[in-house]
Amino acid sequence: MIKAWFKSGSPWIWMTAGAVSINLLLVVGLLLLIAIRGLGHFWPADILEYQYQNQQGQHSVIIGEEVDESLLHEAQARAAGFEVLNDVEYLHQYLVKTGNRDILGSDFRWIQDQYIREKTAPDDLIAVERREWGNFYGRLRAVKQNGEVIAAGEQAWPVAQEKLAKDLVLFDEIDRLQDKDVGAINYNLERLRLKQRALELKNQWNDTKAQEFAALKTTYEAQYKVIQAELSKLNREIKTYSIVVSEAGGREIDIPLNRVVKLSRPNAMSVLDKSIEYVKNFKAFITEEPREANTEGGIFPAIFGTVLMVMLMAVVVTPFGVIAAVYLREYAKQGLITRIIRIAVNNLAGVPSIVYGVFGLGFFVYIIGGSIDKIFFPEAAPAPVFGTPGLLWASLTLALLTLPVVIVATEEGLSRIPKSIREGSLALGATKAETLWRTVLPMASPAIMTGLILAVARAAGEVAPLMLVGVVKLAPTLPLDGNFPYLHLDRKFMHLGFHIYDVGFQSPNVEAARPLVYATSLLLVMVIVGLNMFAIAIRNNLREKYRALEN
Predict the structure, then answer these.
(1) Which of 66, 61, 143, 75 is nearest to 104 (CA)?
(2) Residue 134 — pLDDT band, cuts 50, 70, 90?
(3) CA-wise closest residue to 402 among 317, 311, 315, 529
(4) Residues in domain ABC transmembrane type-1 (predicted)?
(5) Smallest Cα–Cα separation from 227: which of 191, 189, 174?
(6) What local confidence, expressed as pLDDT, does residue 345 receive?
(7) pTM value?
């Protein structure tokens, strides 16, 4: 009976279904772990106040967020110099985010439960998110204007919130003027300098050109002076207010409001207030630029760079992959050479990605990019334009990396189209090229989209080759802006995958970076899923469109 059951093949079906189910559970579990650890970072955690007495009997007050806890074995505790009370096997300890790095020297510290005398969460504790030095935890004492106290005690909180809102508006205006207006003027002045250098190299520089360029330069300098005057006014205005806060030890410190991003009292918030704050925190994470060596702020430049690079890669890899597949399937003579080419294409899919990065650096950047600079941008020498890693070379390198996937998927799609459809088209008087363009390729478009989906999924998560051909830790400007030619393919860019690597393995503040690794990983998965869902929707639409023709 059992032997017959095995011969029927049913056990193998059940084993296959079980393996698929286990894999699915593992994937779902991994995504849940990333989601819980990542999304939990944005919830406004309560600020706790600990009355702490260490083993020497010294009393201190610790203020901060409780971010983790663990058990320390008795032997490890004694080796670390802790006195184990009550003869327990494990010491219960908490990881507290104390902030105040400019005062304490570190954002985090471990404290042992046996030394905690009291733990409370007073409503008056505040969290100050700063542009530098991370968070500050303590109590708000007063608000100052030009060094004079204008509010103290309970009145300080609403006044501080009001003045901070005004300063944030001013900061955004300053940021806009510096990044967009001043940046545009500097960009135009640099282009003017390069044009002058180009004319000098061609021996076309004369007095007429000199007067014309001088007039343009004068115009730009006049615009710059106007903007500088506006910036000076805004900078004086934004430095008007400051807050007085006290840290856990009782020392009072002045913090200028222009260095503050947000003030919050999480202990005094209701669940609804915390939910609203949670949404704001997540929105800020995906729309703002990073700060503090990528351990604070948002990751918008990395999201933008990832999506833009993948889109450019898709634009390049799709036509080349389809053309190669059409030639191999429809035009090439099926023989030994064609089989060797197919084997080579399949082997290329297994080449380590870092090898593609080395090839892209040597061929695209140094050979092609260097040649482009010599021919088209001699005036920029010795500074490289395209002869340095950038967005274009990163996209081409990943297009080369994913090309075998598109070729194989397209060939499989072409092979599934019945021969009778080609013969019918030719019998009606169409040429072979017309048959391919009007009949075969449209019917193979779902397979082409499948190859593109696989290519996007792989390219969006690649990091190793990008480290050699264009990705950077922090990009001063986006590759797409309002300056002609608008899309700057020579610029370096940020990438979510590299951001995860940098924050997780290169950050000087490991504990602060850990939740950002999970949050960025989740966002990278969401970006890949979003791009794939868009491509899948197009593929399904094409499949439904040509299903009747296939039947």
Answers:
(1) 61
(2) confident
(3) 317
(4) 303-535
(5) 174
(6) 87
(7) 0.89
